[in-house]
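Entry 14. Ran structure prediction on the chain below.
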Amino acid sequence: MEIVCIQEEAFYALFDKVLEHVEAKIDSKPAKWIDGEEAMGILKIKSTTTLQKLRDEGKIRFSQPQKKIIIYDRDSINEYIEKHARETF
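Output, structure tokens:
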């Protein structure tokens, strides 16, 4: 067993840093709009074609703020997954 001795000021500074880190993790909510790579990760698909098909068929919401930038609504992806969930017996 090792014992580490630090000054009182250093201890409280470290303690404050730990609290800030924990509070930041608790307060951070996932982003509403995500990129295609993250959307494919949530959906567990590897093909951008499949993602485009879901988008074209209106199964997931998306926004296109610029010509080559497409972002996806995380909530609609989760709703799509829930809609296709199978109930257990």
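The chain has four helices and three strands. Will compare against last week's run tomorrow.
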